[in-house]
Write a structure and sequence with these properties.
Length: about 290
């Protein structure tokens, strides 16, 4: 498709199955892009890097985009012009997990739970799930830990009683016997978990080709059998090749999204979750602007 190969820097919280599959399938060469990835430990750090131009693309929560693109009332105290390039997934199995001994609402309310950042989209979703299972958020202690893999490990190490986990961390939680209380789909069947985003003034031809490659890779992963997906992932990223992970990836409830545009209803759901937590909420016009740029 392209005789030119451009390199992009991508900031992500955990390993992307789409990027892993794209390389295995040779779509990186077909679309003329290469990339390097770096693990980010927090959304403020990710958006600071994006704003500074240290990364070209963020794999992130759309709630993060809403917070940093529509107001300066965020941890960086600056509003960043950001474009959502496309949706990625429905949350990859976002679930409220606790250690096995935390087996009642009363015990939850006496526990300390981990969040990435207290004023983040995943934390706000966790608050809604806690309410859904009948516990009182006000009676629970929370500590900020950072990215999902670290939260999962701290639960397993006994440093916190639980958290909200997804993707390979949710698989690890299931395999480790953690107690699953509720999922994003229990409250929001079409929850938008992750998007590709970049600075609005940095949508280069290379970025556009990566987005096109992303769409083709997503279509391929959803069209394959589970066994074929596992085979593709086994060499590129064994942790993403397990039957449990592949089931989440291909799930119409939790998995990859084939459509290539973010919809207004996606953001309205996220705003509703923010509103329930008493957090900053963007206006109707803010949301419309984000969708128009998406």
């Amino acid at each position: 498709m392209s005789q030119v190969t451009d390199h992009l820097r991508i900031g992500q919280f955990s390993e992307s199955p789409v990027l892993a599959a794209a390389q295995k399938l040779g779509l990186d060469a077909e679309f003329g892009v290469t990339w390097s990835t770096e693990k980010v430990v927090s959304s403020p750090g990710q958006f600071k890097s994006l704003d500074a131009g240290d990364i070209d693309i963020a794999i992130t929560s759309p709630d993060n985009v809403m917070l940093y693109a529509t107001t300066d009332k965020n941890p960086l105290t600056t509003q960043i012009p950001i474009t959502m390039l496309r949706p990625i997934d429905h949350g990859l199995g976002l679930t409220f997990f606790t250690r096995p001994e935390v087996n009642s609402v009363a015990i939850i309310q006496e526990s300390t739970l981990g969040v990435d950042v207290l004023k983040s989209g995943f934390a706000f979703l966790l608050f809604r799930l806690i309410d859904h299972v009948g516990a009182d958020v006000e009676k629970i202690s929370f500590i900020e830990i950072g990215a999902t893999p670290k939260r999962a490990q701290m639960i397993l190490d006994g440093q916190v009683a639980g958290s909200i986990l997804n993707a390979e961390s949710a698989v690890l939680a299931q395999q480790s016997g953690l107690h699953a209380w509720a999922t994003s789909a229990d409250l929001y069947p079409d929850y938008l978990g992750t998007v590709l985003a970049t600075r609005s003034n940095a949508i280069t031809p290379a970025v556009e080709r990566l987005v096109a490659m992303w769409t083709e890779t997503t279509k391929a992963l959803l069209a394959m059998s589970a066994e074929e997906v596992s085979a593709v992932m086994s060499d590129a990223s064994p942790a993403l090749a397990t039957p449990q992970y592949v089931e989440i990836l291909q799930s119409p409830v939790f998995g990859l999204i084939e459509r290539d545009t973010v919809q207004l209803s996606d953001l309205e759901t996220l705003r509703e979750i923010r509103s329930a937590a008493g957090a900053y909420t963007p206006s109707d016009q803010d949301l419309q602007n984000l969708v128009s740029r998406a």
